[in-house]
Structure formats: structure tokens, C-alpha cells
Design goal:
Length: about 200
């Protein structure tokens, strides 16, 4: 996004193959325009910057703007809370709002009143993950680089079991999980619902 002489131009990489990812990227740039144009005259956002969940500055604000614009909470919350968090829940949000599965998973967990989590993995290691507020209060959290718990490394697409959370004071939690492996990206998306 670049501003010159009162005009602004936003460009999105044509090589981004997923329409939902392109939509989020454009909404992210619109967020910079609406919220930050008085602060800076240009924003050179890479895909890594947009996807960095630890970004709390202007990039984090632009991501939040994009998320709110594309997936209004009052419309997503009923889908997120309609049943246990699963790949099917994520697919419903993707279909309704035209976003990526990752964006849909994050929003579902953010808005859900259920004890649930959404995790992105590669080669049995966590790339990033988010727990709902109620799951986090139970001690459920995911740290980048952590090995995926053995209970979730199964080759199956769905599991039932007991997940041991790292904090010693937390008891083992029963869970249902669904997983989607992406041949194109090499990532696995895992939805975990603790059913509590």
C-alpha cells in the first residue's frame, strides 16, 4: 500500500493461489489505509508479516481490521457455537465468508464459547495454535515449535482421546479432534474440541 499526492494504491501478489488468502491480504491493506495512513505513507507487507500472529503493532491492527471486516463476529459466532469445533465448522465459515481455513479457524476459536483450539502443524510440530479463552483458562496453549502431542499424530483424520496439557497442575482433558492435511502447502490443520 503506497500513498502519493493524496492517492493510495494497494497491490496484492497475483501468485497468492487461494482466493480467501487474497481477500484477507486486500482487507489487511484496507486496514492500513483506514487506520494508519496518517502515520505512514507506505506499507510493504510480506505474506510472512501478515501471517505472523505475534505481530502486535500496525500489522496486528491491520490483521484485526481484516478479520472483523471479512468475518463480522455477530455472523460468525452462531456458526462457531453451533456444534463442536471441527473441520466441518471451519469449512462452513470459509464457504459463508470467502476466507482461508486458517483465518476461519482463528475466528471460530476467538468467538467460540466452547473449550476448543485450532492448530496449524507441519511435520508433527506446531507452527502456531490458538485456544479459545475458556480452553486457555484450563491451561490449553500451543507454542510454536512444540512437538504435536502423540495423541494428535495419528494418521487418522479424527480422534477421540485424552490430551495431556503441559502445565503440571492441569488434569488430562478428554477431546475430539479433526484434522485436514494439505497436499499443496504441507500443513495440517487440527481442530480440537474439549467438549466441556
Amino acid at each position: 500500500l503506497v500513498g502519493r499526492g493524496g492517492s493510495w494504491i494497494a497491490t496484492v501478489n497475483a501468485n497468492i493461489w487461494h482466493a480467501g488468502r487474497r481477500s484477507f491480504t486486500l482487507a489487511h491493506e484496507i486496514g492500513h489505509f483506514c487506520c494508519h495512513r496518517a502515520i505512514q505513507q507506505s506499507f510493504d507487507c510480506t505474506l510472512d508479516m501478515i501471517e505472523d500472529l505475534t505481530n502486535e503493532g500496525l500489522e496486528g491492527e491491520a490483521n484485526n481490521f481484516a478479520s472483523q471486516l471479512l468475518m463480522p463476529p455477530n455472523l460468525v459466532r452462531p456458526i462457531a457455537d453451533a456444534s463442536k469445533l471441527s473441520i466441518e465448522t471451519i469449512d462452513s465459515i470459509v464457504e459463508a465468508f470467502g476466507v482461508s481455513k486458517s483465518a476461519a479457524g482463528l475466528k471460530a476459536v476467538e468467538l467460540s464459547s466452547r473449550k476448543c483450539a485450532f492448530v496449524v502443524c507441519r511435520d508433527d510440530f506446531i507452527v502456531w495454535g490458538r485456544a479459545s479463552e475458556s480452553a486457555y483458562k484450563l491451561g490449553v496453549y500451543f507454542k510454536s515449535g512444540m512437538e504435536v502431542p502423540l495423541e494428535l499424530q495419528s494418521g487418522n483424520d479424527a480422534w477421540r482421546g485424552v490430551l495431556s496439557i503441559e502445565r503440571r497442575w492441569n488434569p488430562q482433558l478428554e477431546f475430539n479432534a479433526t484434522k485436514l492435511d494439505s497436499d499443496r502447502t504441507g500443513f495440517s490443520l487440527v481442530c480440537v474440541d474439549f467438549g466441556l
